[in-house]
Amino acid sequence: RDSLEGTPIYWKTDRLELLERGHFWLSETPDREGLGWDAVCVRITCWAVFRTKDNNTFAFVNTHLDHVGNTARINGIKQICRFVKDKFGSEMPLVLTGDFNDFPDSDVIRTANELLVDARAAASVTTDETTFHGFKNINKTIDYIYISDNIRCSNFEVIKKERNGCFQSDHYGIAAELEI
Hints:
8 strands, single chain
């Protein structure tokens, strides 16, 4: 069976050199595709290590936690945090992004906050705009950019672009200006 799940990482090849990359599934068997815990969707985390033109390296991790299974979300973020600690340690600058499908006051976000810093909170210029609208009038924050404490965030924004009254996704885009 082929999963439709993907958490791609895009980069500008003229600015960043890819050094290493990989992925794992958010489940009890991270080395092979499968549902994790009480999830209703197969979920995956992708990661990469890049080198900048000025010879700095950093890791980038992108994920999508389950939208139904609370245990899957909590265990998924714990699995990601363990992976980040084991693979990159505390010295490597790291960015973690994704649809966490949980709210700022949840156990999932508390777990992420134990390891990393929410770029929205760390930014010099920031917003309290929500990130999920569901093509309706839903206003919730479930999408995040996290950074290690050796990265600075000058700006965090929620991008609410539409064309002819239509959005390309049920989520608004989020962006952060980071100094690594």
